[in-house]
Write a structure and sequence with these properties.
- The chain is built from seven helices and four strands, in the order ααααβααβββα.
- It is an alpha+beta fold.
- The chain is elongated.
- The two termini are 29 Å apart.
- The protein has two domains: 10-69, Arc Repressor Mutant, subunit A; 81-165, Glutaredoxin (3-Layer(aba) Sandwich), CATH 3.40.30.
- 48% of the residues lie in helices and 11% in strands.
- A four-stranded mixed β-sheet has the order 2-1-3-4, covered by helices on one side.
- Bound molecules: FE2/S2 (inorganic) cluster.
- Residues 86, 88-91, 127-131, 134, 136 line the site of FE2/S2 (inorganic) cluster.
- FE2/S2 (inorganic) cluster is lined by residues 86, 88-91, 127-131, 134, 136.
């Protein structure tokens, strides 16, 4: 997995500083600070971790260590259209794995990856509570149900086209 060097804006920096302040710079609150920052940015780039380390007076290596240890933290930015395939039981028995494979093939991505052009990223989810529509895929907050592998290229095309229009 390659890491992407990203400059964070002054605004983002101030927002992260605010988050650290709201937790009183308490080192025991590091996980909460990281959560809030990820909620705000969608991921935790190295530069954001450095700001947190400085503000909280914690060695950067320790912050990196915590971020890498917990799977709910991510250092990779999501795509503009994040695709999530439900792998819950109902979806799984109705062929979610084939749908996932089709997305992987069509996009050339593995789960957890983002396309180099930043358009799509691929993730798997547990049950999203729409089992009646299994197999289910989310693209951003749009829900697609009762999917067949043939639908995958149409979904990708739909978002690619909308990206061209915007
Ligand atoms: S298992 Fe996929 S929505 Fe419930």
């Amino acid at each position: 997995m390659s890491s992407i060097k990203i400059e964070i804006s002054q605004n983002t920096r101030s927002k992260i500083e605010e988050i650290c302040k709201s937790y009183n710079y308490e080192q025991g609150e590091l996980i909460n600070v990281l959560h809030k920052t990820q909620e705000y940015l969608g991921y935790l780039p190295a530069e954001a971790q450095e700001v947190i380390a400085k503000e909280m007076n914690i060695p950067t290596a320790k912050v990196y260590g915590v971020v890498s240890f917990y799977s709910f933290f991510t250092m990779i930015p999501k795509g503009r259209f994040p695709i999530s395939i439900c792998m819950g039981t109902a979806c799984y028995v109705r062929g979610a794995e084939k749908i996932l494979d089709e997305f992987k093939n069509q996009l050339g991505l593995s789960v957890g990856e983002t396309a180099p052009d930043g358009l799509f990223s691929l993730a798997s989810l547990r049950c999203v509570g729409a089992c009646g529509l299994a197999p289910v895929v989310l693209v951003g907050d749009k829900v697609y149900g009762r999917l067949a592998t043939d639908d995958v290229k149409d979904i990708i095309a739909e978002f690619k086209n909308s990206a061209d229009v915007i």
